[in-house]
Amino acid sequence: MPLGIMEKPVDLLPASARARGEIRAHFACIDGRTHLMRAYEGGGWRLRHPKTPNGLEVVTVNTGGGILGGDQTRLSFDLGPQADVTLTSQAAEKIYRADCEASEISLNLTLASKARLSWLPQEMILFNGANLVRNVDIAMAQNAELTLVESTIFGRHAMGEEITRGVMRDNWRIKRADKLIFADTLHLEGGMQSKIVNHLKRSAIGKGARASALILQISPNAAAQVDTLRALLDTHTHDTFEWGVSAWNGMLVLRMLAISPERLRLAIVASLIHLRGQDMPRVWQ
Questions:
Q1: Distances (CA, A) of 154 to 40, 45, 96, 164
Q2: What is the model's pLDDT at position 7?
Q3: Is 183 exposed, middle or buried (0-12, 13-18, 19+ CB in 10 A)?
Q4: With the C-alpha atoms ordered 186, 265, 224, 86, is the resulting torsion angle positive or negative?
Q5: Between the CA of residue 210 and those of 4, 79, 170, what are the distances in Å?
Q6: What separation in angstroms does the CA of 143 have from each of 71, 182, 190, 219?
Q7: What is the pLDDT of residues 169-207, one digit of tens each?
Q8: What's the mean pLDDT in 44-66?
Q9: Nearest to 89 by CA among 280, 232, 285, 283
Q10: Do 143 and 114 contact (CB within 8 A), yes or no?
Q11: Cα Dmax for the chain
């Protein structure tokens, strides 16, 4: 049995103790403005859209304060033609220790013709003993545009916590015009101490990194951003921060590793402001 999963039978945990969170939303562009047309909220998850000067900004809120073992979270967002939406989260998402079943997160994003989406959730913090399964599926039209960030912090850095046990399965699939253009899978199981913390301490891999991030932009001018983004990231280069960026086929991919989550966040914010040409959502400040 993988470490991080208690040997107690799963059925000893009542179904009522597990959260079934869900958000479904559809956005449409009407007379040049994007509107939230339909929304469903359930299981403690809420959707808020504060007034902002830069188009429609939508914030997901987990009123439960985090995700426990056995919790299931389903997030689905559908953008109609020419819709322009920025989606973010109220705070960092905490994945608590799981004593039974895995925590499950399912994210589905659909972008119609000429839709533009910025998917900008704040960090995900994995507690020691976390057991997470996440599946991300994105379907976009050929001329849709997407900018996204996903960042993970391994352990509560301020408390000196290290991940010594747990499970993480992360599956990403992005299709453009029904063609698979991006696939990424991470599977860590058993003693994550040997698979994450020790490996990331090696100079050839992470130089002791405790946090990682992926920034991805799919747009016609993605390749044109590479040189200026590299110049920007050079100003953040440090022996505790590593990064690499490349672009091909209308897609830019930036990966970052850092010992300090705070240093990583600064680089994320600077990179996204550069790529999007506008400030970060207010909840990031």
A1: 32, 24, 12, 10
A2: 40
A3: exposed
A4: positive
A5: 19, 34, 17
A6: 36, 16, 42, 8
A7: 999 999 999 999 999 998 877 655 555 555 556 665 556
A8: 88
A9: 283
A10: yes
A11: 57
Q: What's the chain's average pLDDT?
A: 86
Read off the pTM.
Answer: 0.87
Cβ-based burial of 204 (10 A; exposed 0-12, middle 13-18, buried ≥19): exposed
SS3 content of the chain, % helix, strand, coil (to 5): 20, 50, 35
Nearest alpha carbon to residue 95 among 58, 133, 61, 121: 133
Beta strands per DSSP E along 49-130: 56-62, 72-79, 84-89, 93-95, 103-111, 116-120, 124-126
- Cα separation, 48 vs 181, in Å, equals 31
Name the token pair of 39.
């929304």
**Residue 198: partners with Cβ closer than 8 Å, 6 or more residues away:** none
What residues contact 35, with CB distance under 8 A and at least 6 apart?
27, 28, 29, 56
259: left (phi > 0), else alpha (psi -120 to 50), else beta? alpha
Residue 229: partners with Cβ closer than 8 Å, 6 or more residues away: 245, 252, 254, 271, 274, 275
- Tokens representing residue 227 in the block: 């040189």
| Amino acid (1-letter code) at residue 34 | T
For residue 195, give the nearest of 204, 207, 187 by alpha carbon.
Answer: 187
236: closest CA among 264, 217, 277? 264
Amino acid of residue 117: L
